[in-house]
Amino acid sequence: MRVLHVIARMNVGGTATYIANLIHGLEKLGVSNLLVIGNVPKGELEDSVISTLKYQRIEPLSRELSFAKDRKARKEIERLIESFKPDLIHTHTFKAGFLVRLRRRDIPVIHSFHGHHLYDPEFGFFKRNILNIIERLLAPRATRFITIGKKVRDELLAVKIGGAKQYLSIAPGIAALELVDELGVRKRFGFSQDETLVLWLARFTQVKRPDKVIEIARLLPKIRFVMAGGGELLDKVKASAPSNVSFVGFQDKN
What we know:
This protein is of the alpha/beta class.
């Protein structure tokens, strides 16, 4: 069996880990996989896990909407589908699902929602409704939808995206955590043993609400807040942060 996976970007985060674990698991079952990726935007890092995967990069493919680039990306995706000849296509997040499902296919298409756009503060009322319309129109071209939880499924069904029989909710698998030497980590980052630390680990983007961390930090000046990650709001958050907030940048999950 041959599976083509498509995603606009493999930035550091849960989705990249999810896809890598999925592909590695399928490989153990004898499934041949090819991952199609685009480029990460400025302010984000590409997950190093792609070095463990067989992948093909499409330069025009990205999260941002661009008629010219999206048209080129779609043509390159079509060429890869023709050459790889997958038995199944698995798309992840909106852009990949949109480009693949623009065309009706005899090949089964599974689309995974790693969350959704319905409450994303990056999308205003108008843009959110446009995305809803697009998803409704393209829903019949998906053989199955996978959501990371039943709540996501129910919220998508509430705005009439797809039918109930299309959905399958699968919670992401979580590998056992390997605990590290706490004192060693504190020493590495310059935090004393007596400090109470609160860690925030995410992209500095509006949907992750880093501004809330700053609000709480101001209310609790005796606690050290450590913010790890990067993104388009990093400089803005740094500028507004009180002295009890430390920024440690991107951290390798290994």
